[in-house]
Amino acid sequence: MVLIRFPSAANAETFYHSDEYQEVLTIGLQSANRTMFILEGL
């Protein structure tokens, strides 16, 4: 499990959809199963 804290859900979504993360995600999806959740108020 990996937990990453962002200032807001909008920041998390911006990160997720960034070109840089999408490039890494493409590689990661070939080697691991992933489920992502964005939780607010923690």
Automatic annotation (TrEMBL):
<protein>
    <recommendedName>
        <fullName>DUF1330 domain-containing protein</fullName>
    </recommendedName>
</protein>
<feature type="domain" description="DUF1330">
    <location>
        <begin position="2"/>
        <end position="42"/>
    </location>
</feature>
<dbReference type="InterPro" id="IPR010753">
    <property type="entry name" value="DUF1330"/>
</dbReference>
<dbReference type="InterPro" id="IPR011008">
    <property type="entry name" value="Dimeric_a/b-barrel"/>
</dbReference>
<dbReference type="Pfam" id="PF07045">
    <property type="entry name" value="DUF1330"/>
</dbReference>
